[in-house]
Structures are given as C-alpha cells and as structure tokens.
Amino acid sequence: MKYINLVEVYQKLDSTTKRLEKTYFISELLRKTPVEDLSRITLLLQGKIFPPWDERKIGVASRMVLKAINVSSGLSVKEIEDEWKKTGDLGKTAENLIQKKKQATLFSSDLSVSKVFDNLRKLATLEGLGSVDQKVKLISELLTSAKPIEARYIVRNVLEDLRVGVGAGSLRDAIAWAFFPKVSGIFFKCDKCNNYMPNITKCLECNEAIENKFNKEIEKFDEKKVLKLKSIDELKKADIKKYDFILCNDENLAREAYNYFVNAVQGAYDVANDFSVVAEKAKVEGIKGLMSVGLEPGRPVKVMLAIKVKDIKEGFERVGKPADIEYKLDGFRLQIHKKDNEIKLFTRRLENVTKQFPDVVDYVKHNIKGDSFIIDSEGVGFSPKTKKYLPFQSISQRIKRKYDIENMAKEFPVELNVFDVIYYNGKNMIKTPFIERRNIIEKIVKPAERKIVYVKNLITSDEKEVLKFYKESLKRGNEGIMFKTLDAVYKPGARVGHMVKFKPIMDTLDLVIVGAEWGEGKRSDWLSSFTLACIDENNNFLEIGKVGTGIKEKSELGVSFSQLTEELKPLIISEKGKSVIVKPEIVVEINYEEIQKSQTYSSGYALRFPRLINLRLERSAEECSTLNMVEEFYEGQRHRK
Ligand code: ATP
C-alpha cells in the first residue's frame, strides 16, 4: 500500500472533529487495506509503530529531524529554523520546504507504507556510536522521496506527535464498521453513490444529502446478502461473513446487533491491548477470531478499574451482600506475569517496569507458587526505618528510574500486596468468580511482611463492621477501602460496578501539562507556570487553567520545579519567548477550590486556586480526566452549594 493513501486519510482526520466522520474515514481505510499492511496501518493511524505497552519508542528529538530536513533538502539549518519559527510546526516546515524544493527538481517517487514503517522501526532500534548519523539518514531517506504533504506526516510520525485525534473508541468502532455487516438504523445508504453512511446529514463520499430514516433501506438490498434479523441469538449463530447488511424491524434489536459487533472488538482489545492484532483477527477470522483472543502471560492486559461510592451503604448497594471488603492501598498497580521462569511487571499504563523493581521480581520468584500466571497487585512504599507505609508520591520516582536501581530499592522499599489472579498455570481465570480467585491467591502466595502479602480483607454484610475496617485502614496510612462482589468476573479494561472504592478525599482532577513558562530570577532554569488540559472524547486536549502552586523548590519536599522541568524538557515542541508548548504526556493531580465556566480556556472551564498535589507518572495522557468528568464535577459542586 502507498503511504500517500494513509496520508490522505490523515488529512481527512485533520479536517474534522466529528467522531462519526473520523470513524468512517478510518473504517474505509481499514477495509481497503490488504491484510499484509493492516497491522502497520492500524498502528500508524494511532501515530505509533509499537503497541502501546511495548517499551520501545522512536525517541527522536526535533533537532535530529531538522538535520534530516537539512540533508534531504539541501537548505541551510538557518533557513529551516526561520521557516520553523514561522509555522511553529516542524511537520509543516518540512512540507513547505520540500514543496519549494520539488518545484525545482520535480523529483518524486512512491513511498510505501512498509518502507516508512520499517525506517521508523529501525530508528527505534539504533543505539550507540554512529547511531545519530544513521538515524538522520533513515529520516532523510524518507523525506527525499516524499511528496510535500507526505513530508508533513513523516515528520509527525517520527516525532510521535501525530495529533489527528484518533481515539481508542473511534478505532474500535471503525474496526467493527470495516469488517462486519452494516446494521439498519445505524447505517444509511446514500441514494446517489450507494455507500453506507453513519447517522450524518451529508454523504462523506459524494456530499449528497442523506435521509436517515429507520428502515428506509428495506427495499434496496441484494436479498442474499441481507440477514433479516429476528433475535440476537440468531445473529450469534449466523455465518456473518455471508452478509453485507443486517435488517431489523425493531430499533432496539438493531442497536443490540450493532453493539454485539462493537463489544466483540472491545473485548478482544481489552485482552490483546493492540488494535493491530484485533483488526487482523476481525478481518481474517471474524467474530470467532475476536473471541479467541486469549490471555497470554508476558503480554499485559488492561486492568479492571473501580467506580467510586459516596458511603458504605452505597458500596453494598453496588456490589451486593455479603461482599469482600479490602484495604485500598495508596501505591501503584503492578500486573505481574510469569512464563517460562521469566517474570515481567507492568504498570496500570501497561509499561514494562521489570528492570526498575528487581526486589519485587525476587519476592515473586520466591514467594508465589506456579509455572505461569498473571497476578494483579498494588506495590506500596514504606519507610525503611519505621516500616510504616508511605504515600504513593514518595516512591513514584522508582517507576521511571533507569539507573542506580539497587540503591533506590533499598532507599524506597516496596511491599507487594496481591489482590487478584486472572491466569494460573495455563488456565484463563477471568470468568472464575472473584472469591475463588481470592482463595487461589491465599494458596499460592507465601506471605512475608514488608515483602509480599495478600491484601487484607473481610467478608461481611455488616455496615458497622465495614466502618470499623475503614477507620482501621485509614489509620494504617491507606487510602480507603474497596468493595468487591463475591461472584464477579474480572473485566479487563472496564470501570466496573462490582469493584467499588470508598475514600475520604475530595474530587481531584488528573490533568495533562500541555505548556509552561520559563521562570524568572533564581527560577530561570526551571519551567514554572504549567498549562493544564483535560481530554475530550476525540482525544483532543482542552486547556482548563494554569498551575504554579503546590510545586516545591526542593525535591525532598515533594514534586519540585526541577523534577517537572526534567520531565518536560524532552517534550518541548516549540518555544516562543518564555512560553513553551510541550507534547501532552505528563499527568498531574490537581486540587482546586472550584470549577468555573470560562471563555479563557478551550475546555470552557477554569479552575479557581488550582494546586498541584501529585505527579502521576503511572498515568498516560489519554487516561487524564475527561471533559465529561469536569462537567460532572462542575454540576456536582453546584448541587452541593
Ligand atoms: P484512585 O485515584 O482512587 O486510585 P484510579 O482512577 O487511579 O483512582 P481506580 O480504579 O479508581 O483507580 O481505583 C482502583 C485503584 O486502587 C487500582 O488501580 C489499584 O491501583 C488501587 N488499589 C489499592 N488497593 C486495591 C485493592 N485492594 N483492590 C483493587 N485495587 C486496589
């Protein structure tokens, strides 16, 4: 497949913020992509070349791209920098400069998706002596053959800064649209060009107005390719490949049929964590293929998340009685995999942190029985002197630390608290009732205080008993308690109502830093005021305010200016005067007095007296607080007044 086919879709995605339109463009590309390119295309659509949990990164900085433009265009660094200042965007800069150059030389050859992808992957593997020159060569090789518009996106691919707004939700739906029949009432046929469109007013292929009336389509199909659906069971038994369209007489059934496909894609994604695997399965093996995606020790699974409740009563209402009540520890999630005697640790963001925690690997090796498993747990820091638990923040630095690891482990020891098992000795256990999984944990974990234990629990129906347990939990330095339904399944990736949390703290927001300002005077080496953003459903980051409070001058006291500067410096995309724009990657937890409506920021909201309370390195930017959440909190505080 030609790279230009992908670039054309990038442009279409850039041209709309509407989710249905984006999903349509993605689904059409996926549908037309030959199987051998499907995995690459699916990753490149997300601006990636590895699945999200893979620790490999392209890791190329803007300066290197600048050098590559210099090599491929023959223009001086100064000329390129001038253009960069004008556009503020290195991708656009490459496009403009190559445009000028191409007019002179008329040179252009067809770049393939695989060529671009292979060069990007090579960039990620080169290290050591001479690697800089080799990397520049790999990028400039692509730019030399690129059409101007291709150059724009090659640069963005290289910098892993695509910004076309492809969220997991759109990609999931697009896979369902591409590889499964369209369903009546969800899709509508364009009278002019005969393409199926989602519920929009104008055809995205020919611009004709579309009448979106339920079942207006009935007369239009090749009978053989239409499944006239009476019940959802019929769909589950049908040979879906045979059909182009599913016709339902009832709108609810139509929605159910559509959800059946979308949920199959989502279910496979929650387990595989890689849309490229999911798209291939859907195309080649259909629904059965998606359902066959299983757990594999070594490949991380999305963790199950909890809903918050306001009191103990609501806790029981949600999970039922009796329930399993556990300490909610203030640490960080660790998903532990064992296979062929190798142990791997993943964070909640599915980052591989095995190297950072040799102490934990050691405990797992010696204190958990079994040949293969996937275990869910919380790593909690404690003081080596007093042995008391410490808040997450005090050990968070261990997660990213790449050097001096042994000393760090001594200085900031971690106790592993196991609370779930989802795969054991070859058996997938996500459908096994929770209480049985808990019993297995108690059998396979050999507890050793301040090394590895299973989470303290209580099985009860008694609210008073829970209150006592809750107080005891807080006294021990924990965050609160969890309620868990005894016979619940484990749902990868879902925020579920059968595992709920109860804790005393107010609603804080997890926001992404998208910009900052260099400080003044003695703070001039530090970034000081940080622009914060939440995320909308299309993965756009929307600004909501600035924070400068709560950040310490000295690292010993908590999150410091120098720590934030160190984290953000490699992410700087552009600078103007004292202001910098950074790649949205760093998430911080923000406390505030109130959320207000505001015209100043793109989210439409602003925070009154924001204060930084935590750096959340375990969260990805996509996992930050959503605009919906901000709206909910805003409404919630109005009701409290
Ligand atoms: P929070 O800020 O409250 O931790 P969150 O969005 O990070 O919220 P939630 O799913 O809401 O995560 O809360 C569950 C988290 O609590 C888990 O990800 C896990 O890290 C932690 N945790 C601590 N103790 C337990 C426990 N006993 N069972 C399950 N999760 C626990």
Protein architecture, described:
Helix 4 (62-73) packs across helix 8. The chain has 21 helices and 25 strands. Helices cover 39% and strands 21% of the residues. The strands form six sheets. Strands 17, 18, 19, 20, 21, 22 and 25 form a seven-stranded antiparallel sheet that branches. Strands 8, 9, 10, 11, 12 and 13 form a six-stranded mixed sheet that branches. Strands 6-16-15-7-14 form a five-stranded mixed sheet, covered by helices on one side. By secondary structure, it is of the alpha+beta class. The protein has four domains: 48-158, DNA ligase, ATP-dependent, N-terminal domain (DNA ligase i, domain 1); 168-270, no CATH class; 305-502, D-amino Acid Aminotransferase, Chain A, domain 1 (2-Layer Sandwich), CATH 3.30.470; 509-640, Nucleic acid-binding proteins (OB fold (Dihydrolipoamide Acetyltransferase, E2P)), CATH 2.40.50. It binds adenosine-5'-triphosphate. Adenosine-5'-triphosphate (ATP) is lined by residues 305-306, 326-329, 333, 348, 378, 419, 455, 482, 501. Residues 305-306, 326-329, 333, 348, 378, 419, 455, 482, 501 line the site of adenosine-5'-triphosphate.
